[in-house]
Amino acid sequence: MSAAEKRELITESKYLEEERRASYKSEFYKGEVFAKAGASRAHNVIVVNFTNFIATKLKGKGCRPYSNDMRLHVPLTTLYTYPDIVVTCGKEEFLDTQFDTLLNPVFIIEVLSPSTADYDLGKKFMLYRSIPTLKEFWAISSYEYRIQKYVRNFKDNSWVLSETMNINDSLTIENLSLTISLSEIYDEVSFVA
Fold first, then answer.
1. Are 182 and 145 in contact (CB under 8 A)?
2. Per-residue DSSP letters for 67-108?
3. 0.85 exceeded by pTM
4. Pairing mode, if any, of strands 71-74 and 79-81?
5. 96-106 pLDDT tens trace
6. For the chain, which residues make up each domain, given as ranges?
7. Distance between the two ends of the chain, CA-based, in angstroms?
8. Residues 6+ apart with CB under 8 A from 131
9. CATH class of the region 39-185
10. pLDDT (tens digit, 9 = 90+) per residue, 119-132?
11. Is there a contact between 88 and 103 (Cβ–Cβ < 8 Å)?
């Protein structure tokens, strides 16, 4: 038997019970639990820069951002995860009365590291696309100036990609009607050429 075959699967309820007591964060998918790794300085600075910007702009507008510690559940796929930034608008929906597991995001941001980029842009984004309320997904690189922006077209459920690597560009969060410059997102982050 291989190591993968020996891995014990757990239920969603067991995961939540253990996760709510744990001193570290883990993700859950199809009965398996995956510990979350730490993040680089650049990753943390980008999350703080974007969260500060969006929190200020959304104040009093019926939308709320959360960063890092708000667990998200995607019921259709069983995924439990912690996006770097997640935004809700209107009435928030939670899994239960613990109010620590969100169900209805409209905007998700993942800050990519070399070790997570393939997963975040591949399998994880595929799972996110099953969230009926999700309108927009951004992948922000923490190792080069690059942002990939995906906007849902609800007419045919397709996702339209736009991308920039120019620090002088600005991008609009379509469903929130907010524009942010790459220089704001990457403030105090630099990359060695």
1. yes
2. ESS-EEEETTTTEEE--SEEEEESS--BSSTT--EE---SEE
3. yes
4. antiparallel
5. 999 999 999 99
6. 39-185
7. 46
8. 74, 76, 104, 105
9. alpha beta
10. 999 999 999 999 99
11. no
